[in-house]
Amino acid sequence: MKTQADAGGLFAPERVAVVGATDREGSIGRAIVENLADFDGDVVAVNPGRESVLGYDCYPDLGEAPAVDLAVVVVPPSIVVDAVRDAGKAGVNNVVVITAGFSETGGEGAERERDLVDVAEEYDLNLVGPNSLGVLSTPTGLNATFGPSNALPGNLSFMSQSGAFITAVLDWANDQGIGFKDVASLGNKAVLGETDFMRAWGDDPDTNVILGYLEGIDDGREFIDAAREVTDETPAVVVKSGRTEAGAQAASSHTGTIAGSEAAYEAGFQQAGVVRAENVQELFDFARALDGLPMPDSENVAVVTNAGGPGVMATDAVGDSRLSMASFEDDTLDELRGSMPDEANVYNPVDVIGDADLDRFRSALDTVLADDNVGCALVLSAPTAVIDYEELGEVVVDLQAKHDKPVVTCLMGGERTDRAADVLRAAGIPNYFDPARAIGSLDALAVQREVQSREYEAPTDFDVDRDAAREILEDAADRGATRLGVEAMELLDAYGIPTPDGEVVDDPADARWVANDIDGDVVMKIVSPDILHKSDIGGVKVGVSDEEVADAYEDLVTRAKNYQPDATILGVQVQEMVDVDAGTETILGMNRDPQFGPLLLFGLGGIFVEILEDTSVRVAPVSDREAGEMIDELDSAPLLRGARGRDPADEDAITESVQRLSQLVTDFPAILELDVNPLLATSDGATALDVRLTIDPEEL
Amino acid sequence: MKTQADAGGLFAPERVAVVGATDREGSIGRAIVENLADFDGDVVAVNPGRESVLGYDCYPDLGEAPAVDLAVVVVPPSIVVDAVRDAGKAGVNNVVVITAGFSETGGEGAERERDLVDVAEEYDLNLVGPNSLGVLSTPTGLNATFGPSNALPGNLSFMSQSGAFITAVLDWANDQGIGFKDVASLGNKAVLGETDFMRAWGDDPDTNVILGYLEGIDDGREFIDAAREVTDETPAVVVKSGRTEAGAQAASSHTGTIAGSEAAYEAGFQQAGVVRAENVQELFDFARALDGLPMPDSENVAVVTNAGGPGVMATDAVGDSRLSMASFEDDTLDELRGSMPDEANVYNPVDVIGDADLDRFRSALDTVLADDNVGCALVLSAPTAVIDYEELGEVVVDLQAKHDKPVVTCLMGGERTDRAADVLRAAGIPNYFDPARAIGSLDALAVQREVQSREYEAPTDFDVDRDAAREILEDAADRGATRLGVEAMELLDAYGIPTPDGEVVDDPADARWVANDIDGDVVMKIVSPDILHKSDIGGVKVGVSDEEVADAYEDLVTRAKNYQPDATILGVQVQEMVDVDAGTETILGMNRDPQFGPLLLFGLGGIFVEILEDTSVRVAPVSDREAGEMIDELDSAPLLRGARGRDPADEDAITESVQRLSQLVTDFPAILELDVNPLLATSDGATALDVRLTIDPEEL
Predict the structure, then answer these.
(1) pTM attached to this predicted model
(2) Which of the two residues, A609 and A450, has the higher pLDDT score?
(3) pLDDT band at B340 (very low <50, low <70, confident <90, very high)
(4) Chain A residues close to B386, C-beta within 8 Å
(5) B580-699 placed in CATH 3.30.470.20
(6) How far apart are the C-alpha atoms of B383 and A170, rounded to whole Å?
(7) Half-sphere exposure in the Cβ direction for A377 (13 Å, CA)
(8) How confident is the model at residue B581 (pLDDT cuts 50, 70, 90)?
(9) Residue B330 pLDDT exceeds 70
(10) Would you call B580 exposed, middle or buried from its count of C-beta atoms within 10 A (0-12, 13-18, 19+)?
(11) Which reaction is the catalytic activity of this chain (chains A, B) (predicted)?
(12) What is residue A260's predicted lDDT score, i.e. its pLDDT?
C-alpha cells in the first residue's frame, strides 16, 4: 500500500478514459460512459473492438489515446491487471478499477489483487478499487460511477466501503437537497484507503465535512495520525459498521474485513477526532449541521418555543446530550419580560406562547442570541394561525447571520413546513420534526468544537533505559521464553515504572544480600516460566525475616522441583512487602489490535474489570492528556478520588505509569500482551506489584 | 378525581353543544364550530347573545337546547364553572373545557379549578380539561378542537398533555398518511386523566395502539393497575417528557406538573407494560409498527438485502436491540443455495446481491419467512436497475400476509420509494431509509410481545403479624419519634424478614438473659433516636461475652449520657454476632414517590449503590417475578451468583425479603422511608443487620 498516495488528484482530471467502454445496453461500461455526459473535461473510450462509443472517440489501448489523467477500468477481471499496467505505461496517474472478482471472492481473485497492487506500486498509481462503484466530483461534473444517480453540488465529501450504500444515499440525498463535493466508492481498498481520502479531503478547500461509511480501517495508527491533523479544521463523521458482535460477523462475510475490536475503534476514532455516527440518520444529521452552521462558542443552548410540551422534549434531549441549557443574564431576562406577555416564560426554554407572532419570535430569539451565555439555539414552533413558517424561517436565517451562532429549527408539521425548510436549508440550517434530532445536531457541533479545541501534544519522551529493556527481552527470547512473569519486573524498572524493591536472584546468598538491603521482612516467590500458579504449590512466602531468607530460598526451589522436576527455575524473587490495603488495586494492560496496534487498557482491579467491565482504552502511544482521560472515563474513578473516605490516589503517578508503559510497548513491537496487575495506586505513587507479558521473539 | 370515569363516552356523542359558540373571526369559539362541520351527528350552539351561529341553531343555555351528549365549553374563565354546572343540570355527561386560565395560572385560577372539580363530581361528569385543545374522533367525523388540522382515520388513539404538540402531530401525520381513531388533549387533567383514557381505549375495539405524550402521571399505582390490564392486549406507547433533570424543571414550569422521579416512571412504565419512547420519532415509529404488524413468534430477525453494507448496518442495529439474528435451519440454507447465485450469501443477513431481480428477492424472503427460527424480517434494498420498488413492495405485502410474520422494509432512496411506501403503508408495513429505524420498529414489537407474554401474578400475601407491626409504629408515634433505628428491627421480625437473634432491652439483667439465649458472644448497641452515629461515641461493643454483658450495658448508657445528657435512651440492643464476610452486603430500601407511592430499591451495598449507582427500582407491591427482576437488572448481579469464586447467594431468600418489605410498606403508608442496610445475602438466607426508617404518625 502506498503511504502517501495523493487521492485528491482523482477528482480533478482534465481527460478521463473509460477502459472497457461499450455501448452494449445494460452493461456497466455503457453506464459509466453515459454518466460522464456532463463532465466538463474530455472523455475518451478505450476498447480495441470499437472506433467510437456513444459519440466518444475510441482507442484500442491507452498508449494510443491522448494523455489521460484518470482511467476508469471496467474490463473483465482476467485482463484488469494488464489494463492497469497499460495505464501506468501510458503515464496515467489515477486509476479507478470498477471490475469485481478480486479479493472479495478469495482464491484466484485474491492473487489477482496482489498482482494489481504490484503494478500500482511499480507505476506509483493512485488506484481506487477494485470492486468500486467509481468516483464522482461535482465541480467538474465528473461522474465516473455506474450508479443510477448523480450528486447535487455541495461541500460534503463521502467515502464508502459499500457501493450500494452510495447509490442509496445519492438517490435519497437528491430528494433531500443534500449535495456533495466528491464521492468515492472505496471497493476493496487494494491501494487507496480511508486514510488517503481523509488526507486528500483535509487538503481540499471545497470539502467542508468528510463523511465515511467504513467496515474496517487498514492501519489504525496511520489513520489516527492523519485524521487528527485533518479534523482539527475539517470535521469528519463516520459510521463504522460491524460495531456489534453480530455486525462484525456480517461485515466479515461481506467484504472479508477483519473488524478489529470495537474498543479499538471507539478509542481510535476518539483519538483521531472523528465524530462517530451510530446510524445513517446520524451520519447525515451531523454532516448537515457541521456543513452549514458556525461553531458554537459554548455548549449552552437556548430554546425559543411557542409550545411548552415540545420545549420540554427539547430540554430532555439537552439533558441526554453533552449540551446544557443556557442560564440567561439578568439583562436578557429583563428584555424578554419587556417584550413578551406576562404568561410567557422568560426562562430557558423561553415559551413565547401559542399566540406569538413573528415579531415576538424575532425579538425573543434576537435577545437570547445576544446573550454571552448562549452558544447555540433551537427554534421550536407548533403550527398556529399567527405564524407563517416561511417568514419564521427567514427570521431565523437573518438572526443566525447577525449573531453568527448556530441555530437549528423544529418547525413542526407536514407540508406547511416545506417552503420554510427550503429557506432554512439554503442558509445551511437543518429543520426537523423531532426536537431530539435537532438537539442531536447541535450536540455534534459540540463534539467537533471539543475536537478543534484540543491541543495535540506529542507523547512525552521519557528518559528510559531502552537497552536494558532490550536485553531483558532478548535474554528471554534466547532461552525460548514467550511468556514472562515477575522475572520481567526489571523491564518496568528500565522504563521507570515503580516496582517494589527487590530482585530475582539465583542463589541463597544473593537472596540474603537483597533482603538485607530491604527494610523489614520480604516476600519471596519462585520464578519459573513453567509454574503459573505459584501460590498453589507453596511457591510464595510472605513475611520472611532476614534470618529466614536462605532457608526459604532452598525450600522454594525444592517445592518447585518436587512439583515439576523438569521445570526451568530462573531463581527466586526477593521483594519488599507491600501493604495492598494502603492503596487501590488497578490494572494497566496492553494488547495488540490487528488494525490499531498497541491498545492500552486501564481500570480498577478485580470485579471492576471482570464483572463490571469498567475499563478505558486508548491506542498507544498516548499523551499526558490522553492518559488522564483514561482515568476520567471510568465509572469507578471516584474511588481513586477520595470517595467513601479513602485517600485520593496520586493521579499523576498513574498517568505517568500509563505513558511509560505506552512508550515501552511502542518501542518494542515484540511485546504482544502485557498486564501490570495490580498497579497499586496510593496517595503518593503508583507501584507495579506484578507483571505478565507475552512476547514474539521474531519481532525483536 | 373520579376513580372510574368513562372517558370513552366523549368520543361517540350524537349531539354536541358548543357553549360559547360565536362567529367572531379568529375566535376559538368559531374555530370549534367550524371544525365540527364534518360531524355526522347534530351540532348546537349555546350563546345567549345569538340566535344562530354559522348556520347552527343557537340557544341561550343548555337547559333550553335539545338533549346533548357532549358539551364543549369555550366561555370566558369566570363563567366556566357556571356553564359546566348548567351542563350537569341539563343531564350532559361529557364536557370538554377548552377555556384556559385555571390551575396553570396559579392563584385565582387554581381556586376556579377546584370549583370546577366540585361541580364535575356533583354531576358525575366526564370532564376533559380545562385548558384543552379539545377532542376528536374520526369514525363520526367529530373534531371538537380548535386546532388547524383534522385527523385522518386510523386506529391509533392519542392523548397529549400538550395541545400544541397535537396540532404539530396532526399536521405532520396527515402528510405521512398516519391516521387516528381518537385524540384527546388532556389540558390540566382536573377530572379525567391519562388513566381514564388508557382504560377507555383499552375497551375500544377500534383502537389498536394507545399513544401518549405525558409530562406527569397523577396516580402512578392506579395507572399501573389500569395499564397492565390494557397493555396485555392493546399496546401503549408513551413519551414521558421531563425525563432528565433539566427536562423535569422545564415541565414543572410548563404545566406545574410535579414530575416525580425518573426512576419511578421507568419502573412504573415497565410494570404497567407501557412501551416507552424516548422521543417523537420513536413514538410514531413504534406506534406504526404496533398498529400494522402481526406479533412475532420470536425475537429472531432475518435480513434479506441486495446490498452488503446496509445489511451490516442492520445487523449492528439488531446487536443494539433485544433482537437476535436468526440462525436458519439447514433446509432453509439448502433452499437459498438452490435459488441464488454462488456469490450470494445464504447466511443471515442474506445477501441476494446487486443484480437480484424481483424473483430472487421473493424466493429468498419466502424461504426465510417459512423458517421456524425466523420471527420477523427486514427487507433491505439499494436502488438498482433490476428492481422496481413498487413491485418489491407488493412482494413484501404478499409474503407478509402469507406467513403472518412482521416484516419491515428499507427500500433506500429518494422519490423512487414514494409509491412503494404507499403500497407498504396500506398494508401496515413501515418503510425507512435508515436500517436502524426499521430494526427499532421490530424491537418495539419484541417489547410488546414480552409484555403480552407476562403472567400478572398478584403479590404474595405473606402470613405476617400486622398487629405487632402496628404496635411498634404506634409506640414510636406515642413517644413522638419519627426516625427509628435498630429499635425497629422487630418491625422486620413481624413481617418475617430474618434478623439476627437479639432484642432491645432496658436493663442490665434483661441484657444478660438475652445474651445467654444467644450462642457465643454478642454485639451491643445503644438505642437512642438522638444518637445517630453510635460508633463515634463508643456506643457499639462487639464480641461481648456473657459475663461482660451487664457491665457493657452500664458503660454504653453512661457513654451516651455523657455524650448527650438529654438524649432519650430507649435501651440497648443485644444481638447475635454476624460474620458479614460470610456473605454479600446488599441494600433494600423504600421511599415514597409523590406519584407512584412506595418505591422499592435493591442493590449491592457500599460503592455499588453510592458510586456506581447500580440499583433496581420497582413500585410496590411487587410480585415474586418482579422481585426477581430486581436482582436480574443489576450489573453486579454476577457477584450474587458465584462470580470470582464466591458462594452463590440464596436468591429466593432475597426476593422473599423484597416481597415482605413490599407488603410492610404497602400495609403502612405511615412508613415514609426505610432502609435495610445491610441485608446480608448468604448462600442459605438473607438477614437484615440494620434498619432505619422515617414515619409520619399522621398516617397511622
Answers:
(1) 0.92
(2) A450
(3) very high
(4) none
(5) yes
(6) 10
(7) 33
(8) confident
(9) yes
(10) middle
(11) acetate + ATP + CoA = acetyl-CoA + ADP + phosphate
(12) 55
Beta-carbon contacts of B111 under 8 Å, excluding residues fewer than 6 positions away, are: none
Q: Percentage of residues in chain A with pLDDT exceeding 70? A: 98
Strand-pair partners of B687: B680
Chain A residues with CB-CB distance to B351 below 8 A: 254
Using a CB-CB cut-off of 8 Å, the residues of chain A touching B611 are 635-636, 638-639, 643-644
For chain B, residues classed under CATH 3.30.470.20 are: 580-699
Residue A4 has pLDDT above 70, yes or no: no
Instruction: Assess contact for A660 and A497: CB atoms under 8 A.
Output: yes
- How distant, in Å, are the alpha carbons of A459, B7, B103, B470 from that of B115? 72, 21, 11, 38
Chain B interface test: which of A312, A433, A437 (most B C-beta within 10 Å): A312
Of B442, B456, B454, B393, whose CA–CA distance to B295 is shortest?
B442
* pLDDT for A115 beyond 60: yes
> In which residue are the cell numbers 441485608 written?
B679
CATH 3.40.50.261 domain locations along chain A? 7-290, 294-453
Using omega within 30 degrees of 0 as the cis cutoff, is the peptide bond preceding A130 cis? yes
Instruction: Tell me yes or no: is domain B293-453 CATH 3.40.50.261.
Output: yes
B556 touches B539 (CB < 8 A) = yes
- Predicted local distance difference test score (pLDDT) of residue A487: 81
- Class of the CATH domain delimited by B7-290: alpha beta
Chain B residues close to A347, C-beta within 8 Å: 253
Tell me the per-residue pLDDT of B610-634, one tens digit each, with 9 for 90 and over. Answer: 788 899 999 999 999 999 999 999 9
> Where, residue-wise, is CATH 3.30.1490.20 in chain B?
501-577
CATH topology of domain A294-453: Rossmann fold (3.40.50)
Mean pLDDT computed over A342-347: 91
Q: How far apart are CA A335 and CA A378, in angstroms?
A: 19
The CA distance from A569 to the nearest CA of chain B, in Å, is: 30
A168-194 average pLDDT score: 95
B659-676 residues labelled b (16+ CB within 10 A) or e (exposed): bbbbbbbbebebbbbbbb
CB contact under 8 A, B241 and A309: yes
Q: 3-class DSSP state for residue B180?
A: strand
Mark yes or no for CB contact A434/B610 under 8 Å: no
Q: Phi first, then psi: what are they for B342, rounded to 5°?
A: -60, -35
The hierarchical CATH code for the domain B501-577 is 3.30.1490.20
Percentage of chain B surpassing pLDDT 70?
A: 98
- In Å, what is the CA distance from A303 to each residue of A348, A368, B664? 6, 9, 46
Neighbours of A562 (CB within 10 A): 11
What count of other Cβ atoms lies within 10 Å of the Cβ of residue B261?
Answer: 17
A686 φ, ψ to 5°? Answer: -140, 130
Q: How many whole angstroms separate alpha carbon B179 and alpha carbon B424?
A: 15
Residue ranges matching CATH 3.40.50.261 in chain B: 7-290, 293-453
Interface of A with B in 379-408 (CB under 8 A): 382-385
- Check CB contact under 8 Å for B247 and A315: yes
pLDDT at A647 over 90: no
Q: Distance, in angstroms, between B436 CA and closest chain A CA?
A: 6
DSSP structure string for B627-672: HHHHHHT-TTGGGGTTGGGPPPP-HHHHHHHHHHHHHHHHH-TTEE
Q: Do A643 and B215 touch (CB under 8 A)?
A: no
Residue A239 near chain B (CB below 8 Å) = yes
Ranges A19-23, A107-111, A651-655, B391-395: which has the least confidence:
A107-111
Give the nearest partner residue to A414 out of B171, B244, B635, using CB atoms: B171
Asked if B254 and A309 come within 8 Å (Cβ–Cβ), the reply is yes
